[in-house]
Here is the input.
Amino acid sequence: MEDMKEVVREYVVREYVEDDSEVTFDTPLISGGIVDSFSMVSLKRFLENKYKISIPDDKATPEAFDSVNKICILVQEFTKA
Amino acid sequence: MAYTDKTRGMYSDILTGMKDAGLFKQERYIHSAQAADIVVEFPEGAELKKVINICANNYLGLSSHPEVVKAAHAGLDSHGYGMSSVRFICGTQDIHKKLEKMVTEFLGTEDTILFPSCMDANAGVFEAVLTKDDVMISDRLVHASIIDGIRLCSAMHDTFKHSDMGHLEEKLQLHNDKRQKMVITDGVFSMDGDTAKLDQMAELCEKYDAMLFCDESHSSGFIGKTGRGTHEKCGVMGKMDIITTTFGKGLGGASGGCVSGRKELVEMCRQKARPYLFSNTIAPPVVAGVIKVLEILSATTERRDKLEKNTGFWRKGLTEAGLIIKEGDTPIVPVMLFNAKLSQDVSKDLYNEGIYAIGFFFPVVPQGAARIRTQISAGHEIHHLEKALDAFRKVGKKYNILGKTKQEIIEMYGM
Here is the structure.
């Protein structure tokens, strides 16, 4: 789980952060304005490709994607399935 | 009728909030034809003032060109005022088809379809050619009309960092399983005046079997050696899959736009694009005017050459005056002030000096990136630009920003 968190955090920073803002595992991503709704697509696809899962659109909500911790819980739900 | 006091109050509060936040837009009334010298009433009821316009999209100075005006008059006489019909019922005249053919030749594409505006072209094109099995990958700084068009389309949407070709390639790899991929960019970006790397984008599109879309609204008529646009400048004429552009800027400045590109894609727009199907096309006098514009631009590069010379003079003058401008070679030249209030104050003082230029600030540009966007025209003479430079020097001195770095300006005025 810790490895996954680091992988997701690194992706978020590389993909969305264009200044030196710090992103922790709890930083609000969507509600904090770091990831916009358009850009959630690439995050979803990255997770699906990386962890060989398929996240249904109704599960890929702004709430479920709002922090690295929440994203990892969602991914685990599908990797276990 | 249920427009109650409560409803009225709700909207009044919203508008008041916009005014308090400094986001309320006010029109300035121009009492003359669009040109380098204009007569302006601002604020409403104020005495008329003659000013030099350096914020119009009148890049080639054709908005009030005598030959264009004459051609529009002739078009009005020969083809009437309006069509009272959409294109596919009884709203297509010979001159609409003639203009589509001329635009195709001018841009070096396969076919063209006219739209009431480029806003409409961008609103209709994606939905007409893509489905939920496809993906649109757009530069993060594309024009608002493209964003609206993307929202109307069921295809997946992703973005790449502005002009970052490495990031674009990553996205093309990420979405390689999609039926169709379309890479979407502006040719010249309207707020920064920089140019898309269309040559590199075309290479990537070829490598990953993607289509390439470019909005050339701020480049048609003057970018490239013969003014065909960014694709000419980047050496990729004939490789573009879709170009959208407007006749409301360099190409006469009236109204109207188009989708130009691969013939099947243009035909898809003719069959499916809603702004084309459910709205009248460009009015006959405007069509006649644009035809004349294209004739002028196809006969000589004199106007784009003059614009290039004026742009060089203007960029050099501002830099030598000690102002910070966004680097580039296009006639969109942003003078960076960083602070929103400073941009409004400088704009007001320039107006008092007889120079009409507008300050832009968040949310139109990023926070801390407020600026005066200046736009140069072939309609400007050197004396116009010299007077405008004098005004910038005078106002710049007043605010003590000449020769100062970004950091120094921010320290004085804040972000």
Observations:
- The radius of gyration of chain B is 22 Å.
